[in-house]
Amino acid sequence: MVIYGVALLAGCMMIGLVIGDLLGQLLGINANLGGVGIAMLLLIFVTGYLKVRGKLPEATASGIKFWNAMYIPIVVAMAASQNVAAAFSGGLVALLGGVLAVVLGLAMVPVFAGRRPRSSVVTDADEPRPESMTTHTAGR
Amino acid sequence: MLQSLYDLVDKYHLVAAFAVIGLTMYLAYWISERFTRGKLHGSAIAIMLGLALAYVGGKVTGGADGLADITLFSGLGLMGGGMLRDLAIIATAYGVRFEEVREAGVRGVMALFAGVVVSFVAGGLVAFGFGYTDPVAITTIGAGAVTYIVGPVTGATLGASSEVIALSIAAGLVKSILTMIATPMTARFIGLDNPRSAMIFGGMIGTTSGVAAGLAATDARLVPYGAMTATFYTGLGILLAPTVLFLAVRGLA
Lengths: 140, 253
Prior knowledge:
Chain A: The chain crosses the membrane at residues 7-27, 33-52, 64-81, 87-109. The structure holds 2 protein chains of 2 kinds. Chain A is mostly helical.
């Protein structure tokens, strides 16, 4: 059933958030430390385990895939609810500080990545992700 | 008639948001295909459209949530809010191979620490250049350049003035919004086309909304890798900025 997939996703998220919260409390910071990342790792392990044992039927998987495919629309909604006006009204200090942080951050990516690995993106998802694969044909 | 329509959209705000975003996506992909022949991703255009609308919304209402502050579009706040965003980010991990994550793991963690420090130094230097000499102000603005959450949390801990805290939030917002726009444009030059560089990118930039949208506009397959490291970034920033980094600034000042 589709809800099993959604529930699995939600369960991973809640467990991850609880762990992230506990980590934050342990370190004495008032924030969730990596709860989402932990939830992602959990989802990778749990779905991997179930798939190998043939216990992840298509209906269940589609409950996860739906939210996967909703990612870009959700991000667009997020962009539309950002405080863009405040970012532009913060003055030169805020503008330059933010810009410099992004420029330096982007410039450091190849430094840390080093020599290019031969493999590019490989996933063992059952089918290509619609959002990334159909860009060039969309709207035709 | 118009009033009842208005009430209806307000009452069913999330469903209305789905429709609005669907339309925006359609328009964005149409523009991408028609005017850039698919060279600029439809998702990148959709995100820029979203940001432009958010600017208009913020200007019109004076609120903090962009277009979502306009009652007709309040559902956008829920759809694009932290809860559904995180759920969708986690769902992108479905189908990722753990080996790929593990291979880039060490570099990702290194990038995470470097990313917090580099952003902090960038923000701090700019603050210093503009004549701020108080270590608390320099630290708070530096922390704002880490993310717009680290800034105010650090400022509150250190007792910064509300003006400085507002500046730190603005710096973080600039970073987040610029990341959304600049990532798809620079991806080719920084080799952002594989899981490893995506994890490093997530660690270097870190601001979750910026990374999430920047990678979505570049290549949606990279999202889980970048998001995984980025999700640790704000927590690490809150841990380092008011403590080690503040002490370093005070030592130098």
